[in-house]
Design a protein that fits this description.
Elements (H helix, E strand, L loop, with lengths): L1 H4 L4 E3 L23 E4 L3 E4 L14 E9 L2 E8 H22 L6 H32 L7 E5 L4 H14 L4 E7 L3 E2 L1
Parallel strand pairs: 6-7
Antiparallel strand pairs: 1-2, 2-3, 4-5, 7-8
Helix pairs in contact: 2-3, 3-4
């Protein structure tokens, strides 16, 4: 790449006569004087910004994203010290994730996928066990009149499911409340 070749960056103002013969990348016609910035073999553009003298001064370049935007591309990138700081922070976060998953730093993505799959399997298993427990609880209210049932920590959907199960077994109305006297009930 041009950065690693440490090329000399040429910045100059061509004369009004030279300008039409100078190739440069632009989006529109520009009035003279025009400052040209050229990296030999890579790019030539009209620019009035600050530039390095040699491409190697830029250092590390990290492109984070590139998405189509209107008629162009919107890029998120960093270079030099800022890029290094961002990558060091990302590496530190990945090191923490690596420790949490007991995985090598280059295998944290795979470890996270495995953890998500294991969590989904446990949620499915837990939901099935909860249904069995609800069925067992509901059996103890067969043919009873109105039932009020209090549980410590049911989620709203679970409280509704338990109330439905009890209502199917009792001969009256069933209501399930979840919570504690200190925290309140839902």
């Amino acid at each position: 790449s041009a950065v690693w070749q440490n090329l000399t960056v040429k910045c100059w103002y061509p004369s009004e006569e030279e300008l039409p013969n100078v190739f440069y990348r632009t989006k529109r016609a520009l009035p003279w004087p025009v400052r040209i910035v050229q990296i030999p073999g890579f790019d030539s553009c009209a620019c009035c910004g600050t530039h390095v003298q040699r491409t190697g001064e830029i250092g590390l370049i990290r492109l984070f994203s590139a998405v189509k935007f209107r008629n162009g591309t919107r890029m998120e990138m960093a270079c030099g010290k800022i890029a290094l700081e961002i990558l060091n922070r990302a590496y530190e976060q990945n090191r923490l994730v690596s420790q949490a998953f007991s995985a090598k730093p280059e295998e944290t993505g795979i470890a996270a996928q495995r953890m998500n799959e294991a969590l989904a399997a446990e949620k499915f298993r837990s939901a099935n066990l909860q249904k069995q427990i609800f069925a067992y609880i509901a059996e103890s209210y067969v043919n009873q009149d109105n039932v009020l049932y209090f549980a410590d920590d049911l989620l709203p959907g679970a409280a509704r499911e338990l109330a439905d199960r009890i209502a199917q077994k009792c001969s009256g109305t069933a209501a399930v409340f979840s919570g504690t006297d200190e925290s309140g009930y839902t």
